[in-house]
Automatic annotation (TrEMBL):
<dbReference type="InterPro" id="IPR036271">
    <property type="entry name" value="Tet_transcr_reg_TetR-rel_C_sf"/>
</dbReference>
<feature type="domain" description="HTH tetR-type">
    <location>
        <begin position="12"/>
        <end position="52"/>
    </location>
</feature>
<dbReference type="InterPro" id="IPR001647">
    <property type="entry name" value="HTH_TetR"/>
</dbReference>
<dbReference type="GO" id="GO:0003677">
    <property type="term" value="F:DNA binding"/>
</dbReference>
<keyword id="KW-0238">DNA-binding</keyword>
<keyword id="KW-0805">Transcription regulation</keyword>
<keyword id="KW-0804">Transcription</keyword>
<dbReference type="Pfam" id="PF21993">
    <property type="entry name" value="TetR_C_13_2"/>
</dbReference>
<feature type="domain" description="Transcriptional regulator LmrA/YxaF-like C-terminal">
    <location>
        <begin position="74"/>
        <end position="180"/>
    </location>
</feature>
<dbReference type="Pfam" id="PF00440">
    <property type="entry name" value="TetR_N"/>
</dbReference>
<dbReference type="InterPro" id="IPR009057">
    <property type="entry name" value="Homeodomain-like_sf"/>
</dbReference>
<protein>
    <submittedName>
        <fullName>Putative HTH-type transcriptional regulator</fullName>
    </submittedName>
</protein>
<dbReference type="InterPro" id="IPR054156">
    <property type="entry name" value="YxaF_TetR_C"/>
</dbReference>
Amino acid sequence: MTGPRERMVVSAALLIRERGAHPTAIADVLAHSGAPRGSAYHYFPGGRTQLLCEAVDYAGEYMATKLDAAPSALDALDELFAEFRKQLQHSDFRAGCPVVAVAVEAGDPTKPDQAKPVIERAAAAFGRWREVIGERLIADGVPAQHAGALALLVLSSFEGALVIARAARDLEPLDTVQAQLRLLIGAQTPPPGRKRAPR
């Protein structure tokens, strides 16, 4: 059983993915999580900025763990798309990626002390996902010198498809991009049981 602090972090991530970062207030997180009133600043003395940072950390690690557990790069790709396809369907196309939400909304030039740490956490989450995807690609036989670039292509293509799917209220962008990425990854990995010849 998780405590009120953990519930608040998870609730913040869930609310951010549907509402965005700016509209998600601490009062909303308290109501969603069922945490006691007055507990926010006890658990998060850094206020809303600290809560946003920890929500991004949670979202980043949650997906990184799922990707890392996948037995292959294609399985990791399928896991990534399946997770967000399910979220879109269950939320009537409101739920996107909470890491993207804070990355695009946190840049208030009048509050750089609040924006900078949140954006840094978002960059770290994207970097972690790219690293895990790259590791899966290398394990499947993609040369290390190409794996990082391919992982970035996978990640950016996925995030773009997710944004378009939300706007169009249609899963077709996810389906199309997933199929194309599967072809691309398949073309760069040797068949099971065969190792790529060294270059």
